[in-house]
């Protein structure tokens, strides 16, 4: 399926042709990248790091255009901050590139193989996915991070950033392509879409001949739009409505610290606890003290009736609270009669991202970890650990809420796939 | 997204409501199945096998209705054969059920785990996908096979077979549900769509709230239709345009036997060789002899000019031949100058299913296996080995030509996914 021309205007036809060309170039580059040696990919990443340092003045001049436009358009100061290619932001990108360069190459490794009765060996080899589209919002650091992870895993990348960062992303794209050239890799291995036209997003999302997967990094609006329009498979990150359940057999000091950390480590991350479930037997012992710690941090509490009987400051919680990913200093609290009710609540309301149980009881811990159907399930840990670096992946392109392919934090391995490799000596079938 | 009502007629609204209900019931059953013990799933499969034997008369009476309709509709005798629930066909289903019952339960196994510097353990646990839709054409044995594999892997299943097998599939569905009940598992774990209305297919393919993946088993028309309509991810099986490349360092006796087996083991399977590539240095030695063996089996040969100079009986091959999955006793042959040209041909024309090299040269073998981007790549084996049983998977739901999730033959593992499981003792973040 080619990019559909949804409008017959020459503008849209031209845009479609441009996106089509990007796709063809990416596919061609992907074939070279698929078998590029690890040292060449690492050399390209180091060359990009060197050029980020070297071209700082150019990058910051281009970035200044975006910043000025952002201020003129009345963008919120926090958003303007996120846009800024400060010395510190560039330094972070450089460090990231060098770290990814040093990681082991995921491509070409093989799983354990088995030998069939006829003597042929059957195994699987890790290979790149092919061409990855990244559609993201304003942070220009994604341009570098995503390109680096996709390149390391042997994929060609088409990057479509937010229009607010247009000049910055274009300049970063030039740095990336120069780094690729320095290492003798095809420049089309990483391409930045050279237009702010929003129609380009829909065209990329239907370019099934040339793009193998699209990773959207942005708000729910972007993801909803892509989920409705895309024919290319999406590796998507939806809500993190995360739960901590304090079991009757919890160590209450641990429970206090885990719940407090899960909520207050950072309010805006997808792993932040949004609803706390507490076993009725321990609620009177743990809730008043925990509530006080949360209130001291400025967290607004909303609870079920039994919770409100213990915490007078809590507002009444409704079904909407159980369903909400606040990403703010607000916490919903519900007292449950047993672990079954806790798991029922999670099955009913969770977005399937990350849940945790606090307990010293082995059976409860095992049951919770086995039966809760979320992409990450923890025992005696705060949900805010949901992060590829914390899991030891060394890098993270995002957190997947898909059920297929990669689920939870996605590192380099999630950007690859497996092919079957069979070796024989003339065995025949039948 | 709910099933869209594409027509306002009360009929379509009713059908949409019916499909919606199937989805809700499947989702609910999936939660129970997700944690059902292995012995209960095995017991259900054995109970189904017993009931297939016991209810043979009923099944064959229902099957007779389909057979009669098929004959009245002038269905080809081969198609009528495929429809028939003969004693032998039932016996094969029973054997299959018992084999699947005896396989190890894939659910709940854990990957190797690592311990992070803070002491928390990070691993992954294999879990069911959830709800799987199977959309297939006339063979009623798929009803049993697919239900058994999905159940064994802990998934709820919605089965939508071809209308030609409607009565047979409904009767098989009753046997399956009775077997589930015998083992105390929810009857909605396997549901057969109770209508022949083709609109049901489109409704299932967009039921993203309740179906996690759809596996189409049928012709290209069905898959093309689903690829255009589906919002639910597809695990799909497209063309098998498979290649064997005879390298200059091939053992020519092995090459002869491998190529002959790859083409003639069975013409209609997706792993059948459709194009043979031969290194120019060995073509004069191998091709005349191999051509004779193929012609003796009644295979029509089509070749490039150089091939035709060696094999006068070969018709001229065109680009359409390079692109075609014949599934018939026809073979395209091309002589190439080196392994690079062979791999270029494959990159240009292959459907990415299965390719093989015949060589005694380690470097050529390794290069081919590493660089050819197909879901299976063989050394010194015929492409007709593309099959889950041959790979030792113990069962096969199909062969995936997707790049993501499962690629190549899909067994029980491909019907599961992984979740992250972290275990700590009160570690906090930040």
UniProtKB/TrEMBL annotation, chains A, B:
Function, in words: Catalyzes the NADPH-dependent reduction of L-glutamate 5-phosphate into L-glutamate 5-semialdehyde and phosphate. The product spontaneously undergoes cyclization to form 1-pyrroline-5-carboxylate.
Reactions that this protein is recorded to catalyse: L-glutamate 5-semialdehyde + phosphate + NADP(+) = L-glutamyl 5-phosphate + NADPH + H(+)
Alphabetic keyword roster: Amino-acid biosynthesis, Coiled coil, Cytoplasm, NADP, Oxidoreductase, Proline biosynthesis
Gene3D superfamilies: Aldehyde Dehydrogenase, Chain A, domain 1 (3.40.605.10), Aldehyde Dehydrogenase, Chain A, domain 2 (3.40.309.10)
Gene Ontology biological process terms, A to Z: L-proline biosynthetic process
Localisation per UniProt entry: Cytoplasm
Top-level lineage group: Bacteria
Protein name: Gamma-glutamyl phosphate reductase
Principal EC category: oxidoreductase
Record pathway: Amino-acid biosynthesis; L-proline biosynthesis; L-glutamate 5-semialdehyde from L-glutamate: step 2/2
PANTHER family: DELTA-1-PYRROLINE-5-CARBOXYLATE SYNTHASE, GLUTAMATE SEMIALDEHYDE DEHYDROGENASE
Coiled coil spans: 12-69
EC number(s) recorded for this UniProt protein: 1.2.1.41
Family: Belongs to the gamma-glutamyl phosphate reductase family.
Pfam families to which the protein is assigned, alphabetical: Aldedh
One MF annotation (Gene Ontology) recorded for this entry: glutamate-5-semialdehyde dehydrogenase activity
A single GO cellular-component term on record: cytoplasm
InterPro entries linked: Ald_DH/histidinol_DH, Ald_DH_C, Ald_DH_N, Aldehyde_DH_dom, G-glutamylP_reductase_CS, Glu-5-SA_DH, GPR_dom
Domain Aldehyde dehydrogenase: 16-293
UniProt entry tagged with the keyword Oxidoreductase: yes
């Amino acid at each position: 399926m080619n990019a559909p021309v949804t409008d017959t205007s020459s503008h849209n036809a031209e845009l479609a042709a441009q996106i089509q060309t990007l796709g063809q170039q990416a596919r061609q580059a992907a074939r070279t990248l698929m078998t590029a040696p690890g040292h060449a990919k690492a050399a390209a990443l180091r060359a990009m790091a060197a050029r980020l340092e070297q071209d700082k003045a150019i990058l910051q001049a281009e970035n200044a255009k975006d910043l000025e436009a952002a201020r003129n358009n009345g963008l919120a100061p926090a958003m303007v901050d996120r846009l800024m290619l400060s010395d510190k932001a560039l330094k972070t990108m450089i460090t990231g590139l060098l770290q990814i360069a040093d990681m082991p190459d995921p491509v070409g490794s093989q799983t354990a193989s088995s030998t069939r009765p006829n003597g042929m060996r059957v195994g699987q080899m890790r290979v790149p996915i092919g061409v990855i589209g990244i559609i993201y919002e304003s942070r220009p650091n994604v341009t570098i991070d995503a390109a680096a992870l996709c390149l390391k895993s042997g994929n060609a990348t088409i990057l479509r950033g937010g229009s607010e960062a247009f000049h910055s992303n274009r300049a970063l794209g030039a740095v990336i392509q120069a780094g690729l050239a320095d290492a003798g890799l095809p420049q089309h291995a990483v391409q930045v879409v050279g237009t702010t036209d929003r129609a380009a997003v829909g065209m990329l999302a239907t370019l099934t001949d040339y793009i193998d997967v699209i990773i959207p990094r942005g708000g729910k609006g972007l993801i909803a739009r892509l989920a409705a329009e895309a024919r290319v498979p999406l590796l998507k990150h939806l809500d993190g409505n995360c739960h901590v359940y304090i079991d009757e057999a919890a160590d209450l000091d641990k429970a206090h610290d885990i719940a407090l950390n899960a909520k207050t480590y950072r309010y805006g991350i997808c792993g932040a606890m949004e609803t706390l479930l507490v076993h009725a037997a321990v609620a009177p012992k743990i809730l008043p003290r925990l509530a006080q710690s949360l209130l001291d941090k400025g967290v607004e509490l909303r609870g079920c009736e039994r919770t409100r009987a213990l915490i007078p400051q809590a507002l009444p919680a409704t079904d909407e609270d159980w369903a909400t990913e606040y990403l703010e200093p607000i916490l919903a609290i519900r007292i449950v009669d047993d672990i079954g009710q806790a798991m029922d609540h999670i099955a009913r309301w969770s977005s399937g991202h990350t849940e945790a149980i606090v307990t010293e009881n082995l059976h409860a811990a095992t049951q919770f970890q086995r039966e809760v159907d979320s992409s990450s399930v923890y025992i005696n840990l705060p949900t805010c650990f949901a992060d590829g670096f914390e899991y030891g992946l060394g890098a993270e392109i995002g957190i997947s809420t898909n059920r297929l392919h990669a689920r939870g934090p996605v590192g380099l391995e999630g950007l690859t796939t497996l092919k079957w490799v069979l070796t024989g000596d003339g065995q025949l079938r039948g």
